[in-house]
Write a structure and sequence with these properties.
The complex is a heterodimer of chains A (250) and B (252). Chain A is mostly helical and 250 residues long. In chain A, 80% of the residues lie in helices and 0% in strands. In chain A, helix 5 crosses helix 6. In chain B, a hairpin with a 2-residue loop joins strand 1 and strand 2. The radius of gyration of chain B is 18 Å and the shape is globular. Helix content of chain B is 35%, strand content 25%. The relative contact order of chain B is 0.18. The longest helix of chain B is centred in the last third of the chain and has 20 residues. Classes of the chains: A mainly alpha (250), B alpha/beta (252). At the A-B interface, helix 7 and helix 8 of A face loops of B.
Chain lengths: 250, 252
Amino acid sequence: MGRGREIALAAFGFAAFLLLWEAIPWFRIISADILPPPSALPGAFYRELKSGIWFAALKASLSHYLVGLVLGCALGVTLGVMTGMSRSLESFLSWVVRMLRPIPGIAWIPFAILWFGIEPSAAVFIIAIGVFWISYFAALAAVRAVDRDLIEVADAFGFQRLDQKLRKVILPAAAPGILGGLRTAIGQAWMAVVAAEIFGVYGLGNRMMQASNLLASDIVVVYMATMAAAYGLIDTAFVAVQNWLLKWKQ
Amino acid sequence: MEAIIELKRLGLSFARDGRTTEVLHDLSIKVEPGEFLAVVGPSGVGKSTLLRVVAGLLKPQAGELILRAKPTLGRLPVALVFQDARLLPWRTVFDNVGFGLEHGGCSKADRKKHIETALALVGLSSYTARYPHELSGGQRQRVSLARALAVDPQILLMDEPFASLDAITREGLQDELIRIRAKTKKTILFVTHDIEEAAYLADRIIALVGQPAFLGMTVDVEKPHPRKRNEPAVMEVVSKLRGELSAAAAAL
């Protein structure tokens, strides 16, 4: 199938979806109050934009998102790489990991409120916990899978110190696996944003809950679409960086 | 002349699953400066282990390894060419060849010069920007050889470097190695299970046999280079070694 035909089909599918969506409230199958038609969205978006709320909420959420993502991933990758290189450290941490890992990020909300209050730092904490585990396990597995033969090459050319092996062989060899984990984290972090803001920290998720309480369902959809668009943009940018970093692969 | 590599009563065992296997036992070998010494023997006899000891990758439990050589551009006086090229897939040919030169003390311009010299030696000057996956098996092995040559080691260690190549490529690379050796005057310790290859390339050949491995026989190849693969002096060495190795196999 040609590229042009693929795009045409995708556009056609999307148009059909919007049409079906528009038709359901129009034929009163479901009331427009609880299923706003797509035609109502530009107006709702314009109102939110004009009042300045849209931009403020997006800015707040993006800052929680980015800070939480960077903190969680930095800690996760660092600890994952260290654990991947040391069987002793892995054994030392194994029970702690087994106990903490199954706890969903959202379950930390009570402690987030106790420790940080209803503040942006609480949202950052929730987001960071979610992505920490994803990046930790991705880095651990990637480092564990590095070809021992390549590490021997470092030894054979006199790079015997651990930091040299890490820089010259282990990190570049583990990069595809680590970056794959980070990409998953980028998606997961948006879920955490909504969860973290629902309990009161200002941002997209919080504004969505306000709108929902006022039965302004069209505004809820505006913010759902905003998150999808933000995720799409960030993911596309990340994939571009990833492809550039891994240009040595076929 | 004093030996450049001297192994004195070397002993080495591996512990695996609670059992200890002795691989090398009381092994003494000397290699003269500039010599091309081939080590032959059946698979699993400990040839690669021996090479890893000389490369400093394994510590022997008994005996002594003396290297009368100094590092030149790299960190070590030896450089190892592996059987599988073992290039770093995220590095271009140029950066793979420069790997051993990244110890500091070598300016970027000098590094470039040494890399280009090494690549010219193996005939891959126009491949600098390629990645390993874009190369054939023979080209990858040439890059691996260039990586070892780039640090200008006094001693070149080669671990069955042509074993996984097809016959035509293998013979081409053997001839190239003879040419490079004539040009660079390196001491070469070459491990192979292919006795024709050893007889064609080396000045002297030692056979490792037994479990644990001991020195079976030493053969000098009298004819200097250039040689032909099928000339009497070479063929005679081949049949001597074949006799020794099959006698050793029968004795096990």
